[in-house]
Amino acid sequence: MNGARVPLKISLTRRYKFAASHRLYSAQFSEEENKRLYGKCGNPYGHGHNYLVEVTVSGPVDPETGMVANLGELDPFVEREVIEPFDQRYLNKEISEFHEIVPTTENICREIYGRLKAFSAARIERVRIQETSNNSFEYREEAELAQSC
Amino acid sequence: MIRVTRRLEFSAAHFYHNPKFSDEENRRVFGKCSNKHGHGHNYVLEVTVAGEPDPATGMVLDLKELKDILQREVGERMDHRHLNYEVPELAGKIPTCENIAAVIWGLLEPQITQGTLDRVRVYESPDLFADCTAAPNGSLHGARGEGNRV
């Protein structure tokens, strides 16, 4: 018994880490515009971050396990879909989606959400990425959210 | 609308075991967490209350009162306890952070008289936490009282 008087929503958030390099540069802009827009982040040799990725899943709590999602399933899925391909990589070159789009953390959030969406045991509700301790970004698919509410 | 969050740390032991499963199934489903001797965590509880500040006091609620409620309802029940054996509200449930958050919601919600309980967040470690909130528009994401899925 949880004694709750209203219907409750439970979500679970797991934090993962990867370290990668990137460069913010768009071929759509002139060199000067790139410099103005991206500043130091446009350094042609790239630079890196220790990214922290928070993945939030939601859904009914299975009464047999007490869990929204079993970490025994979520961890290897995230490891395979995201950590393995992203960790210790140069995102611009080694993640094909970033050949065309700029690997800002906004775009990394959306890309990671897209890779995780197929998780079958619970709904991937949110991906939040901390690029540094001063910057964080998050992505939720609003259409899906609206549908579920 | 202002949201006020108060934090409480408590340390407790637990393990995961479903008596309907065989020992082998328990090990497969719950992994290391199924060790029957138990293991422990430094849990961090964050409780968020939402409301409009009282124009006279400038406060949504008296934080001292919230601190006392958290200590009484959660600290005294769960701190330095074994969650499988010593917390009656968790009896018959697997003490995951999802279930702990839902139980804490049930304990706190009737006690909050100024503002409304907005969110209960339970960190089992810096890398894992569960959030319990009221379901949007009454949708059944999680649980509705007794006998449901939480």
Detailed description of the structure:
The complex is a heterodimer of chains A (149) and B (150). By secondary structure, chain A is α+β, with helices and mostly antiparallel strands. The mean pLDDT of chain A is 93. Chain A contains five helices and five strands. Chain A has one domain: 2-Layer Sandwich (Tetrahydropterin Synthase, Chain A). Chain A is elongated, with a radius of gyration of 18 Å. Chain A is 32% helix and 30% strand. The longest helix of chain A is centred in the middle third of the chain and has 16 residues. Chain A has a five-stranded mixed beta sheet. By secondary structure, chain B is an alpha+beta fold. Chain B has one domain: Tetrahydropterin Synthase, Chain A (2-Layer Sandwich). Chain B has a five-stranded mixed beta sheet. Strand 1 of chain A pairs antiparallel with strand 5 of chain B.
Which labels suit this protein?
heterodimer; A: 149 residues; alpha+beta; Tetrahydropterin Synthase, Chain A; 5 strands; 30% strand; elongated; B: 150 residues; 5-stranded mixed sheet
What topology does this entry show?
The complex is a heterodimer of chains A (149) and B (150).
Chain A: E1 8-22, H1 31-38, E2 47-58, H2 71-86, E3 89-90, H3 91-94, H4 105-116, E4 123-132, E5 135-139, H5 142-148
Parallel strand pairs in A: 1-3
Antiparallel strand pairs in A: 1-2, 2-4, 4-5
Chain B: E1 2-14, H1 23-30, E2 39-51, H2 63-78, E3 81-82, H3 83-86, H4 97-108, E4 116-125, E5 128-134
Parallel strand pairs in B: 1-3
Antiparallel strand pairs in B: 1-2, 2-4, 4-5
